[in-house]
Every structure is written in structure tokens, then in C-alpha cells.
């Protein structure tokens, strides 16, 4: 195979996917559990949380929700993991007046991502310089993208933040993108005010995470279609 052909195959493999692909492990409803589906869900959430923790260790700026979690952890003198867990639980409570129903994936999202972020902060070293911090950010974006693709395709329910976004969209009629922008902007401002780290990493996450998820969904779709 020529180098041009190999390049084209690689680029095709990384082509973003515009929709959520149907996978062989997709659930029929939010509490439709199986060993395989649950393991894929857990692995996706673990990768997501570890990727998020790389932003913290990079020192260049956190993802918006982790900016808030870090700010709260500093003010209350609690660990980042506990802060993330608490915030996710409070966001889930906002589902009640919006009549949004959680699934198994929603509960797993709260527990595993918070635990994985704390694990990553404890295990991953801090960036030795700014360049290595940016490289950690890019790796984190790729991991969060792939983790998102895996847990989303399990169809066991959205995470607390995504559920809040879609519920507000459904109730208000405001476009999903605008709802998401409003939520993340509010979270970021509050987190920065509380002392959370904002910087280039935050901007990179905002700019690239959507594309990372789309590419990861495409990779998952093409891998499963080949089986």
C-alpha cells in the first residue's frame, strides 16, 4: 500500500461522525444491564475522568466543570474528587423539577468520573513545563472524547450535566448549543471566582472537545461495523 493510500485510510478512520452510532452493546432502555455493556460503560467513564485529571495536572487551565470543582474544593478544603461528586449530585437534583429521569449510566457517571479524577490527580505527575502541560491537555481532550463516545453509545442514560442541558433545551425550546454555552459559561465564571484554574487548557478544551467526541464516535462506529 502506498504512503498516500495509507494516509487516506488513516484520515478516513478518523473522520468525525455526525450522529451517535448504534453499537452492538447499546441498551434498549436506561436500566438494560449486561456484563459487557456495564464494563464498556465503566471503562469509558474511567477514561473520561482520567483525561479530565490531566488538565488539573497540566497547570494550564481546567475544563469548565473542573474549574468549578477545584474552586469549591479550595473554598471548602475538600478533595477534588469529593467536590466533583458533590457538584454532580446537586446537578442531578435539578433534574427533579425538569422531570428528567436518570439511568444506570447517570449514577455510574457521578461515582466513577469523580473517583477517576481523584485517582488521576493522585497518580499523574504535574507538568514539568508549559509545553508538557499543553501536551497533557491534548492527550486529555483525546481521552475525554473517547471516554464520552464509549459511555454515550451504551445508551444507559446521560451524565448529570448532559441531562440538565437536554432537559433545559426540551423545556425552553432554546437551541442545545446555546443552552450548553450558557451553562458552561456560568460554571466557568463561578469556578474562576472561587479560585479554579483557568487558562489555555480551558480554551483548548472548549475549542476541541466537540471535535474529539465526533472523531471518537466515528472510530467506534467503524470498529464495530468491521466486526
Automatic annotation (TrEMBL):
Transmembrane domains' residue ranges: 38-58, 78-96, 103-124, 130-156
Pfam families: DUF6198
Record's signal peptide: none
Xref: InterPro entries: YczE/YyaS-like
Keywords: Membrane, Transmembrane, Transmembrane helix
Family annotation (PANTHER family): INTEGRAL MEMBRANE PROTEIN (PTHR40078:SF1), INTEGRAL MEMBRANE PROTEIN-RELATED (PTHR40078)
Descriptive protein name: Unannotated protein
Lineage of producing organism: unclassified sequences, metagenomes, ecological metagenomes
Amino acid at each position: 500500500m502506498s504512503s498516500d493510500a495509507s494516509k487516506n485510510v488513516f484520515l478516513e478512520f478518523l473522520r468525525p461522525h455526525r450522529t451517535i452510532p448504534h453499537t452492538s452493546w447499546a441498551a434498549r432502555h436506561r436500566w438494560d444491564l449486561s456484563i459487557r455493556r456495564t464494563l464498556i460503560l465503566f471503562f469509558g467513564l474511567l477514561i473520561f475522568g482520567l483525561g479530565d485529571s490531566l488538565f488539573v495536572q497540566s497547570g494550564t487551565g481546567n475544563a469548565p466543570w473542573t474549574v468549578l470543582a477545584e474552586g469549591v474544593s479550595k473554598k471548602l478544603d475538600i478533595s477534588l474528587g469529593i467536590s466533583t461528586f458533590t457538584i454532580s449530585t446537586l446537578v442531578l437534583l435539578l433534574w427533579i423539577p425538569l422531570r428528567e429521569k436518570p439511568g444506570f449510566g447517570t449514577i455510574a457517571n457521578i461515582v466513577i468520573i469523580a473517583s477517576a479524577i481523584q485517582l488521576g490527580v493522585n497518580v499523574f505527575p504535574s507538568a514539568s513545563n508549559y509545553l508538557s502541560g499543553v501536551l497533557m491537555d491534548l492527550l486529555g481532550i483525546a481521552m475525554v472524547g473517547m471516554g464520552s463516545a464509549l459511555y454515550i453509545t451504551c445508551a444507559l442514560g446521560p451524565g448529570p450535566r448532559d441531562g440538565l442541558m437536554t432537559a433545559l433545551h426540551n423545556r425552553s425550546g432554546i437551541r442545545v448549543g446555546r443552552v450548553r454555552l450558557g451553562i458552561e459559561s456560568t460554571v466557568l465564571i463561578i469556578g474562576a471566582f472561587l479560585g479554579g484554574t483557568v487558562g489555555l487548557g480551558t480554551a483548548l478544551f472548549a475549542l476541541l472537545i466537540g471535535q474529539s467526541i465526533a472523531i471518537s464516535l466515528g472510530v467506534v462506529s467503524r470498529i464495530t461495523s468491521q466486526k
